[in-house]
UniProtKB/TrEMBL annotation:
SUPFAM superfamilies: Arabinanase/levansucrase/invertase (SSF75005), Concanavalin A-like lectins/glucanases (SSF49899). CDD domains: GH32_Fruct1-like. Gene3D superfamilies: Exo-inulinase, domain 1, Glycosyl hydrolase domain, family 43. This is Invertase. GO terms for biological process: carbohydrate metabolic process. Belongs to the glycosyl hydrolase 32 family.
């Protein structure tokens, strides 16, 4: 994928006038000279510089990722495949690069791709190369030594390139990339793989290729999936999920058709978001049929489900055969300006790996941080049944607020006092989050939630909150991540993120889990139904100067049913010794 950086979200604003602008200038130079200040402690990233296909082999997890070893930002002709290994998906050891530009078909960059286990469980890489003409090609690499559990050396196939864009089908040679993990068709035994693309009329398409031997590939007559006016479909991902159950499934295994659904995820480069569709797979015609796709929603993107409503892009899943789960990785990009990235000496991280499964409603996926991350927890803080009156701010002490894991659940009553959702309002959750600024005294139920990475004097803070509305004899729950006051540095992205949560507050509690790691806040609403990731770069609320609070800015009381918070130990991630 051409823009698959790992960067970080800057959400900042000048607050309360000149005094705080002055405070920012006093701290700016010293903070930004410390390139470790904002570096996460338990999120995957290279040891330095700019940051495809994860897998598990011989007891080790492997992370392949796009990396610019020459600098802290994206550079077209310098992109290589970085490579790290782990026993637990938390602590990572760096290895030599798996792929580097070296041949005419990839001399201008080794871009995204995937790994697949072929005959005798031999791992194989399919990747996009940028050739001498800046055209995109699909290529094959195999391990030099399959007995090496570290898979330190890879050999490019002499048959490369093995897939080229079909000009007859109006495929743009610069929009043909990101092969998926391949799978076997059960009725004919042929391998199948998807490649993201677009036609010249701005129709986004996923192309299907078939092969007997994994070397000679033929493009299918019809696209696997396509949609009008949405542009390039980058980084496609395709996998089955159980209708009833949380176990992951291998795409190449045959299952009872009535027990599964299929997920097709695509990354839309024009908006830099990942969207996924749930539907069925016609294995005879080799086409994907979404229950609710882009065109069924008249290409209104706010109606199509996203993995994450914040900073999260170019995601990729893999099937973990050891724990029978589907694991999702996603790239979190920066919101800082290029000059700050260069000064830090790094940019880009991966989100905490998430386990995926289909919600019991069948309408969406549930995402939850892998259980292994919990072994970093220490110094637990717990309390139950605490009423938060309107306008209340409750500090949570005893945890390292800049490096923490916090779970909070709320019980809401007096739902009849929820604010009515005005039909004239724009039903865009991000717009509603901006309108329901968590700093301003709310009306009815909310905003209430967590205030993270807050400075002592409240010059800086980031809020993750719920707001409950009444609409058409039911209740609508809005979840927001408000970064507009996260920093006194005003050079960076201030975007506030939001999404509706499919939850009934009459029968279900409203919960938030936030993983806070210096400059990243990953939040999971309603036990993983809605996820929002933000990057924030405070100038005051750093390290031991950061504070953590629960808050209620509504006029109706809410009850904290349970709160648990932990300090998080530092993981060992790509440390060079």
């Amino acid at each position: 994928m051409g823009t698959s950086w790992l960067l970080a979200t800057f959400s900042v604003i000048i607050l309360y006038g000149f005094a705080h602008i002055e405070a920012f200038h006093q701290t700016h130079s010293s903070i930004f000279n410390l390139n470790q200040t904002y570096k996460p402690s338990f999120h995957f990233q290279p040891s330095k510089n700019w940051m495809n296909g994860p897998m598990r082999y011989k007891g080790l997890y492997h992370m392949f990722y796009q990396h610019n070893p020459k600098g802290a930002t994206w550079s077209n002709n310098s992109i290589v495949w970085g490579h790290s290994v782990s026993k637990d998906l938390v602590n990572w050891f760096p290895l030599q690069h798996a792929l580097t530009p070296s041949q005419p078909y990839d001399i201008n960059g080794c871009w995204s791709g995937s790994t697949t286990f072929v005959s005798n469980d031999k791992p194989t890489i399919l990747y996009t190369g940028i050739d001498i003409h800046q055209h995109q090609t699909q290529n094959l690499a195999i391990p030099k030594n399959v007995s090496d559990p570290f898979l330190r050396e890879w050999i490019k196939s002499p048959k490369n390139p093995i897939m080229l864009p079909n000009i007859v089908n109006k495929i743009n040679a610069t929009s043909f990339r990101d092969p998926t993990t391949a799978w076997i068709g059960h009725h004919d035994g042929l391998w199948r793989v998807l490649v993201g693309s677009q036609q010249k009329d701005n129709r986004g398409i996923t192309l299907l290729f078939k092969s007997k031997d994994f070397i000679n590939w033929i493009q299918a007559k019809y696209p696997f999936y396509s949609a009008k006016k949405i542009g390039m479909l980058e980084c496609p991902d395709f996998f089955p999920v159980l209708i009833n159950g949380t176990f992951g499934l291998d795409t190449s295994i045959k299952y009872d058709h009535d027990s599964i659904r299929y997920v097709l995820k695509v990354s839309l480069i024009d908006v830099s978001h990942d969207y996924y569709l749930i539907g069925t797979y016609d294995t005879i015609k080799d086409v994907y049929i979404p229950k609710n796709g882009f065109e069924q929603n008249n290409n209104e993107l706010t109606l199509v489900i996203r993995y994450d409503y914040g900073k999260f892009y170019a995601s990729k899943t893999f099937y973990d055969d050891a724990k029978k789960r589907r694991v999702l990785w996603g790239w979190i990009n920066e919101s800082s300006i290029r000059e700050d990235d260069v000064q830090k000496g790094w940019s880009g991280i991966q989100a905490i790996p998430r386990t995926l499964w289909l919600d019991k409603s069948g309408k969406q996926l549930i995402q939850w941080p892998i259980v292994e991350i919990e072994k970093l927890r220490t110094n637990p803080i717990n309390f139950n049944s605490k009423v938060l009156k309107g306008g209340t701010l409750l500090e949570i002490v005893g945890v390292t607020a800049a490096q923490a894991d916090v779970e909070i659940s709320f019980e809401v009553n007096e739902l009849e006092k929820a604010q009515a959702l005005d039909p004239s309002w724009k039903m865009d959750p991000q717009h509603l989050c901006n309108e329901n600024d968590a700093k301003v005294k709310g009306v009815g139920l909310g905003p209430f939630g967590l205030l993270v990475l807050a400075s002592k004097g409240m010059q800086e803070y980031t809020r993750i909150f719920f707001k409950v509305f009444r609409a058409n004899k039911k209740h609508v729950v809005l979840m927001c991540s408000d970064q507009c006051r996260s920093s006194l540095n005003h050079k960076n992205d201030l975007t506030t993120y939001g999404a509706f949560v499919d939850v009934d507050p009459i029968h279900e509690e409203l919960s938030i889990r936030s993983l806070i790691d210096h400059s990243v806040v990953e939040s999971f609403g309603a036990k993983g139904k809605t996820c929002i990731t933000a990057r924030v770069y405070p100038t005051l609320a750093i390290n031991d100067k950061a504070h953590l609070h629960a808050f209620n800015n509504g006029t109706v009381d809410v009850k904290i049913k349970k709160l648990s918070a932990w300090s998080m130990n530092k993981a060992n991630i790509n440390e060079i010794h």
